[in-house]
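Q: I have 373 residues here and want to know how they pack in 3D. Can you give me a structure?
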Amino acid sequence: MSARTKLFKLKKPYDNGESDALFFRAMQENCAFQYENCPEYRKILDSKGFSPKDLKEYKDLERLPFLPTLYFKHYAVFSMPQRRMLIKATSSGTSGQKSRMGYNFMSLYRGLRMILTLGKYHRLFSLKPVHYLILGYEPNKANKTVISKTSYGFTYFAPALSRDYALRYTKDGYKLDLEHLKERLIKFSRSKHPVRTAGFPAYTYFLLKQMKEEGVRVTLPKGSVLTLGGGWKQFYAERVEKREFYALAKEVLGIEESNIIEFFGAAEHLVLYVDCKCHHFHVPVYSRVLIRDVDTLMPVPDGEIGLINLMTPEVDSVPILSIMTDDLGRLHREKCPCGVDAPWLEIIGRVGIRDIVTCAAGADKLLAGGDGK
């Protein structure tokens, strides 16, 4: 069994210290695999004078060349034939460009193991049927986004009595219909079955704000859960502080803060980050996080703000073992009141620039005339 698969079969999702050696071996494996099977990735590493053999100890992961998420919005880069990919998906493309991803069986298997372990740890699974309200896209064969697939996948944490969507598909494309969800919330508040919401925090906030302004307040059945994920995207200017959001949810839906769960992830980084009861994104064993200086791109000390560099050996089919996001954040290692020892990631916001200068800069020149589809 490969180190990659062993890593994703670990039963304790936050024992990072105990998993360092296994994580490092898994990253070595994935780096060697990508180097051998992805010509574009090999060109980039060669241009930086880096070889998979240079990964000799855990600290060397800091030197592993990373690719910006924006790179994948310009190039479709794969490490195996697309016919071997069981699922193909894109990022949401709110900036106008989309990353194109593809996942083979083993990549999906590892992801499933991760979901099962994290879902059990965070008590996301339930046998009690629930009504789902998805603050995101209604499924449609034309929609290939990762967020639409993960939102639908969320409805398998508990048996679904119904599924309703904020972004409903029409003959003219997707249309936002918060009025429909408001009516469903009113109806479900009289039911004995819990309600679970999932999706973009912006749409969730707009729905709650609209209900408050209209004087509509309900109390959802016991066991109802509000979950958030996908970020504020193009509505970042409307973002509100978490405390204000939690207070609004309590006022409008009767939902306690303890029943509000937030997820963090990216189309180019499939590891799921689930906030703890203190609303901290602890880093699970399946990934590691580095924070890099915006100007020098060197790692910064814990607690300092910088660009978020995410690493995972999960995926074989795309060279996304180390990616640089356009998010600003900081890493904390102080003891969390929730009891989890793993470091936790604080998301500060997004950088206000279109491109990030990384060690993969110039990759477009390397690939000029190549497969920049």
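Q: Anything worth noting?
A: The radius of gyration is 21 Å. The longest helix spans residues 16-37.
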